[in-house]
């Protein structure tokens, strides 16, 4: 039973005191609710416009948070691939150095070849190990389309009519989809597709030997599953001629140039992801701050307001008690007449 239900008989002064007390209680309840929730706009009835804006913006903030998570995964994936390419560049550079040293007639080419063989195995290990969360951007396998770019969510875009789209960041796929595969089409370290000849992998493509005008279709390592007909893995033996060594060196030089191009692309994408991650964080903070300005309660102000209303409530109860007592006294006087 409420504190008001005991006052059944009323007079104008009692009615006035009761209404004042009811109004004070309503304001106190609202102030206490804002204190407990920290929100001055908690439901649509508090302020329909602000409630709608804040609800929509909170949805965007949640989506941006998901984009941030995706960017974190993408950053790790691209960083892993970039590390793989950088390591491959170091190894291929070492291979070229050993091929150049084979020009010297007194060098034991067989021993050099043993070292080159170990380095080639290291290249395959690098490519296959450059995997994060099951994703590898350096080895092309069956089921993947080399013409499709690798894409990761980069931003949330809300249109003027309320439509939402996701902006994507991508690492370019093969530019040419028809005609012969060229050196520029080699966007992976290794192409292990069973349907091809390794042309989309720098280390498995014959395009670099062709571009260098080599007498043979040299590759650094062979594709595991594709056709290797007519291909020759770069290697040395006692009978390797200087002309063949020149062809190998020129072929490997072309590979290095393309590896640097790939490494640069990964580096640019890494930078873009880092910038987008920082932007997404700042955007989320700005939206959160904007929502707060619309719906958050001023806790210091509400605290003072609650104390003031509690005091008013006590005074109102006293006023109501006095008014009711006065009314009862007058009533008793009339009853004695």
Describe the structure.
The protein is mainly alpha-helical. The chain folds into 2 domains: 12-38 and 300-336; 61-294, f41 fragment of flagellin, N-terminal domain. It has helices at 12-37, 48-101, 109-129, 207-211, 242-295, 299-336; strands spanning 131-132, 135-136, 139-140, 150-158, 164-171, 190-191, 217-219, 231-233. The strands form 4 sheets. Strands 1-2 form a two-stranded antiparallel ribbon. It has a two-stranded parallel sheet with strand order 3-6. A two-stranded antiparallel ribbon has the order 4-5. The longest helix has 54 residues, at 48-101.
Radius of gyration based on Cα positions? 38 Å
What's the β-strand tally?
8
| Tally of structural domains | 2
Low-confidence sequence ranges = 1-9
CATH architecture classification name of the largest domain? Up-down Bundle
- Could you describe the largest sheet, including whether it forms a barrel? 2 strands, antiparallel
Strand/helix succession: HHHEEEEEEHEEHH
Span of the ends, CA to CA = 35 Å
| Class by SSE composition | mainly alpha
Number of helices: 6
Which band does the percent of strand residues land in? 5-15%
Name the CATH homologous superfamily of the largest domain: f41 fragment of flagellin, N-terminal domain
CATH topology of the largest domain: f41 fragment of flagellin, N-terminal domain
Side by side, the strands of the main sheet go 1-2
Q: Quote the average pLDDT.
A: 81
- Anisotropy-based shape: rod-shaped
Percent of residues in helices comes to 55-70%
